[in-house]
Amino acid sequence: MFYLGMDVAKAKLDCYLLTQLDPLKGKAKVVTNTAKGLADLLAWLTKNHIPHDQLHVTMEATGVYHELAATLLHDAGVCVSIANPAQVKHFGQGLAVRTKTDGVDSQVLARYCAMINPAAWLPPPPEARILKGFLARREAILQDLLREQNRQEKAQSTVTPELIHQSINDSIAFLNAQLKKLQSQIDDHIDRHPGLKNDLDLLQSIPAIGPQSGTQLLAVMHMHQFNTAEQLSAYLGLVPVERQSGSSLLGRAKLSKAGPSQIRAVLYMAAIVATKYNPHVKALFERLLARGKSKMSALGACMRKLVHLSFGVLKTQKKYQAEYQNA
């Protein structure tokens, strides 16, 4: 097996083909982060007698800029891994790598690929990618609407010309119309795909998981591969992180808050509802409060419980059962 590290940027891809691990030897190649650039990379690999089905490429998850490279390389028969940037950073520190450049990062990724052998990545199905795009657009419009509503409130509290009031009102009306249209498109898209529709129905069988939190969880769980509920919770930043060392450092455990913050915000509101109407979450909330946990700490545990319940209904393909007892 051959190993290649790829440092991804918006405009270019810094690649390092590992030919020898100790001492480190390899070949560097920089291509544009475009379909043509990736075609040039594949041609360069062929010229160097590297079969595509014997190549393992590792890159970091960098927003959306890694998606084109990962998808096209996978389609070409290359084994692709998407690494957690924090894990790669700590790996590089363990190797005593202090220089920070794109070229050096690609070397670290190549060594990480060869020594750690990360799991292969599989591209999400097209319908999941489309749903993710719809939800991202809806979130953007919601943020625009919130800003316009704040401007409207400010204008109403000051001496503002009528033309400005009308402009703000027109903008709010337009954004509301866009939201309504986009929500209709999201609903139609889910209805056209039985897998998405079935899983959304399962998620919404959980008390406190409604259309908004359900579609957010649906997109995440169809876009990524999670083997356990703990992995899903960690991705959403809902696992507790402790800080303790000897007797000098003893901090309260806090949520890691890694991953998408907008989903945590939706889950927070769902958890508040769940403490009243979801029997499993309500029992957990009351038990933690009785043990002296703060309300915010207990709500964090409730958010995590909702995620575990969501993972469970999709894994078993069975609707939520209020009478189910954990072993």
TrEMBL record:
GO biological process: DNA transposition
Pfam families assigned: DEDD_Tnp_IS110, Transposase_20
Transposase IS116/IS110/IS902 C-terminal domain ranges (all copies): 201-285
Statement: the UniProt record of this protein carries the keyword Coiled coil: yes
Coiled coil: 165-192
GO terms of molecular function: DNA binding; transposase activity
Ranges for domain Transposase IS110-like N-terminal: 4-154
InterPro entries in UniProt: Transp_IS110-like_N, Transpos_IS110, Transposase_20
Keywords, alphabetical: Coiled coil
Protein name according to UniProt: IS110 family transposase
Organism: Iodobacter ciconiae
